[in-house]
Design goal:
single chain, about 220 residues, alpha+beta, about 15% helix, globular
């Protein structure tokens, strides 16, 4: 995935949709922008704690900034190979699983578009939504380092809608009936849920070019 996603809603949307009460104080600084998810940024995350479902805020980089500290501007925002020891040890424990509420996610168009403005052709943004879930949950897992919490999204095979644009993978979108199974089930449940969402229940818009002010 291209590491761009959105949650176009309020915290109350999540507490009502997922039955989650606040587990942490809502950030009040102006650097917190939950509507635009980017690597190293913070986002709303739903997880279980003490037998109840709660709403938390975490940074989108499950490596806890290790690459950033080493001078590389790379975040570990998504994981697909859950069988690798470092990920399996996290995902096997239900306490480390979470849901990431979204309303859209982005992939870059495969080919650049000439906008006829005399500038170099550029790739547009393709934004995907879920038609039967205006607010949907992505399967994820998290870890705590010191007093900070960090998360990653789980990816899977791309479906027929996403594959022409991003054939490698797509985020693992869960049906509402599978939220509890993801948060509390076995490792085998996790693997069974790591599957593409039905393309017939998704939409795509684009390409859009926000830096060129080009209408769709």
């Amino acid at each position: 995935m291209c590491n761009r996603a959105r949650f176009d809603g309020e915290p109350e949307t999540i507490t009502e949709r997922f039955g989650a009460a606040w587990l942490a104080d809502k950030p009040m600084d102006n650097r917190f922008d939950p509507k635009e998810l980017r690597p190293f940024g913070r986002a709303y995350v739903v997880r279980n704690e003490g037998g109840r479902r709660g709403l938390d805020v975490m940074e989108w980089d499950v490596l806890a900034g290790q690459a950033k500290q080493a001078g590389r501007k790379v975040a570990q925002t998504n994981v697909r190979t859950l069988h690798l020891p470092q990920w399996r040890s996290l995902v096997t424990d239900p306490a480390n699983r979470c849901l990431i509420p979204l309303t859209e996610f982005c992939e870059w168009a495969r080919e650049p578009t000439d906008l006829g403005d005399g500038k170099t052709p550029i790739k547009g943004e393709m934004w995907f939504g879920v038609t039967d879930q205006p607010v949907f949950a992505v399967a994820g897992f998290w870890r705590q380092v010191g007093d900070q919490r960090y998360f990653a999204m789980v990816t899977c095979d791309a479906n027929e809608l996403v594959a022409p644009i991003h054939p490698k993978a797509m985020i693992t979108i869960l049906r509402p009936d599978d939220h509890d199974r993801w948060l509390t089930g076995s490792y085998d449940d996790v693997l069974a849920l790591q599957r593409p969402y039905p393309a017939v229940s998704m939409s795509v818009r684009g390409p859009v070019f926000p830096t060129r002010n080009k209408p769709v």
